[in-house]
Amino acid sequence: MTSLLNRVVWSALTTRQDHFSKRGTLARRFDPEISPFAASKDNSADALAALTELICPGDKPVFLLQAEQITLPETLVADKTALGVLMMEKTAREPEASAPMIVPLSSDDIPEMVALADLTQPGPFTRRTPELGTFWGVKLDNRLAAMGGTRLNLEGYTEISGLCTHPDFQGRGLATALTLHIAKVIRSRGDKPFLHAYADNHGAIALYRKLGFDIWSEVNVAVVRRNS
Fold this sequence. Notes:
Layout: H1 2-6, H2 8-13, E1 21-22, E2 27-30, E3 37-40, H3 45-53, E4 62-66, E5 76-89, E6 103-104, H4 110-120, E7 135-140, E8 143-154, E9 157-165, H5 174-188, E10 192-198, H6 202-210, E11 213-226
Parallel strand pairs: 3-4, 9-10
Antiparallel strand pairs: 1-2, 2-3, 4-11, 5-10, 5-11, 6-7, 7-8, 8-9
């Protein structure tokens, strides 16, 4: 588990999500129209040079996410760095019987999904992000009130991501219902659910602990661009 999750983006791009990647033997990145994440195999000079070659001057910023320390070559500059946590499900919890109706979202829902993500900023999200995995939502008053889905997918593990609730519908337990629903679907496929949060998002971390997740490791985040 440790080797897979230390560089979780690399693990996804070299296993189940290989077909989404711009490939290399030492570095890879998702198609930027789908996701801004990229990774090198390790921190060797050759791997970091290969990562640089995947990022063109003028590209939108690329996200790096890994438990191991992030090392950047001189050709890459970080616009933002942060500390996060990777949380793994330790205790499976079943969805509540009184949970709101959760429905799978389709291509028809993408405009609302993008609008909700733009409003609430759950993390990088584009019109094509739902290609990475199924997304589900709660619709109230003919509106998309909340959503969540799966993003990184590697051997034995699937990430819960994109959880967000419209401000008009907060406080109704929609994020809890979606998290438990998605975790159950992931377990039914034989995978272990995990998720990420920023280390200073104490409210989210406390909620996920109540839902059966625990911190596996701190992770490093960097939003980088090529400077030459």
